[in-house]
Amino acid sequence: MPASETEDGAAARPAYYAARPGRWRDWWTLLHPPYTAWHLSYAVIGASLAPVVKLSNLIATVLAFFLAVGLAAHALDELRGRPLRTAIPSAALVAVVVVGLAGALVLGVLGVIRVGWALIPYMVAGPVLVIAYNAELFGGLMHTDFGFAAAWGAFPVLTAYTAQTGTLALAPVIAAVGAFALSAAQRQLSTPARNIRRRAQRVEGSITFGDGRIAPVTADTLLQPLERALRASSWAIILLAAALAVARLT
User: Fold this and answer.
1) What is the pTM of this model?
2) Which stretches within 53-119 are classed as H helix?
């Protein structure tokens, strides 16, 4: 069966969270909702490790990452070959990239005024990571498993903690290593799922068990364990971040 089709012949979605094509639904798909929430959760976790959690700083940090990653990074990615198959005009995607990065930088400047110069390296690194990764600059140097885990896992933890305290400590560094490992695992699951949904033309084969049973191999049998693990993992990280935030802010 062609991987680009489901069993009933309907066109397969480019991602398990993708909505049907059209208008506002394209924008929903562009946000990559579970992955954006997963990424923002790392910022919440990093901030929650601070001795004193300042709610205004936490909100500003999460908003900055939403603008830079949820909007700008994903719009930039969609500009490169339309992997999500949206009909959003290219001019609108470019505008989202510019507005998203500009908004994140404005919040970064406000953070520097409030927290101190320690935030400047993050302000510089953030836009560089977004553009270098999603535009695959420098021959795709950053567009790797390591680059993904560092940029979308470790970086928000460290940034959010520094936005609270103006410095770093051992706890957020350990948490950043954990976020790096979780993001690396996410990448190992999402890459084959993405390849099956967006690139594979045909999936065929079978599994022969010791008792003689033969089970066909289809796109669904390959996708289901990958995407169920991704769903569960995204909810796990989101709920963990929510629990930490509630514990620290109440």
Assistant:
1) 0.92
2) 55-65, 74-79, 90-115
Q: How far apart are CA 225 and CA 106, in angstroms?
A: 41
In total, the chain counts a number of residues equal to 250
Q: What is the pLDDT along the chain (250 residues), one digit of tens a residue?
A: 445 444 433 347 899 999 999 889 999 999 999 999 999 999 999 999 999 999 999 999 999 999 999 999 999 999 998 999 999 999 999 999 999 999 999 999 999 999 999 999 999 999 999 999 988 887 778 889 999 999 999 999 999 999 999 999 999 999 999 999 999 999 999 999 999 999 888 899 999 999 999 999 999 999 999 999 999 999 999 999 999 999 999 8
Classify residue 100 as exposed, middle or buried by CB count within 10 Å of its CB (0-12, 13-18, 19+).
Answer: buried
Can you tell me the distance from the alpha carbon of 222 to that of 236, in angstroms, rounded to the nearest whole number?
22
Backbone angles phi, psi at 214, to 5 degrees: -120, 125
Q: Please, are residues 81 and 195 in contact by the beta-carbon 8 Å criterion?
A: no
